[in-house]
Amino acid sequence: MIKHAIFILLLGYLSFASLNAKAQNNISYVKLLGELQYLISQKQFDEAYKSSQKHYKYLGEPDFDYLLGVSALNSGLSAPAVFAFERVIEAKPQWYEARLYLVKSYIAANNLPAANAQATLLINTDTSPEGVKKSARSLLATSQHKQRLTERTYDQSIELAYGVDGNVNAGTSEDTILIPNLGEFLLSPESKSTDDNYIKLNYKGRYFHPIDQRSSFALGVNTDWYKFNELSEYDRINTNISGRYQQKINDNTLWYLQAGITPLLLDGELYRTESSLTSGASYQFDKQLSVFGALSIGLMNNTFDEKLDNSFYTLNIGASYLSQKWYQSVSANFKNESANIDEGEFNARSISGIYYQINALLSQQWQVSAQTGYQWIEYQDEHPLFLQERSDNLLILSSSLRYLVNKSLALQLALNYQDKTSDISLFEYDRFDTNISASYSF
After folding, report:
1. Angle, vertex CA 303, rays to CA 300 and CA 305, nearest 5
2. Is the pTM of this model over 0.85?
3. Burial of 6 (0-12, 13-18, 19+ CB in 10 A)
């Protein structure tokens, strides 16, 4: 009997001691929360964070984690803040203020997709207060703006090539020509095909600037400088500068407007300038198949001979197919060039062409590409010297083999061939150009 009474008294004492310890612990926890809240209200975030770090045993308690996250975020420590608020919303999914802080923490940590997802969730949750939704919309706009800023890119590359051009001046292989009513004439060396080796330096630069989730602007520069070994009169600098605005109409359709100018300097002097404005669109059927089309208008101004000045328009349509290692495209275009003065009507012409291109990734380092095209060129007035309307056909073949040394450096072998036939023999030629180059992207 006595033993039983002692056991009951001992059990009661232990229960009382346990409840007393738990009460003391609760008092300490509540006191800690009060201290952290006070430090945060006084904007003493570093002190609040340091104090919370000493009580890691409370990690997992939503109220403690919330205050830990607030102090960490305002101390510039985004990672601990993210972990703290993730624990809070896991325990209390409807603590909307904690979710707002989680969005802020994701933004601070540059985890912008996660920030967008959490903000969108708050906006689309029916039970979230209107004030919370308003704050979430503001945070979503901030996150998306920051995401666009991080997507701004500027890419550059420099290429140095050594090559041989088998027909620098696109001259004929004929020795003589027959001119109606005048007879046969011996051609000068300047009119006949001439080969020479050259060095080419190419620079490409492109700046991409997102405007919003669906639209963007891009600025591009592409310039070639050719230096020939002997025929210095054909040394040239050809530069294209373009600005492009594009917008996604929906998930499948892209529309763009592009303006460009292309000056050509020949032997150090401005030879001609081409200006153009292009509007185009593409439609993506799926991840592999797409179709595209574009309409261009422009002007060609020749500095040395105004009879070569013209206005033109071009229509281009095509389709492309992309697989894991292959890219293929087929296109057709029509270009009409109208002379700007009556004396240049014999240079007015229409050009119809079809083209096929294929690129293949042979391995992680080897790439091969090839293109073929055929053009029908019809001149719209009688040539003043040969007294007939000129008609030309042009075959274009090109291929390249590219080796990627590393992410930035590449070596390439390129082959280009043109064969032009005409009903006036002076304008017939074939041309073979081969070069080897090294390019560096940065």
Report:
1. 90
2. no
3. exposed
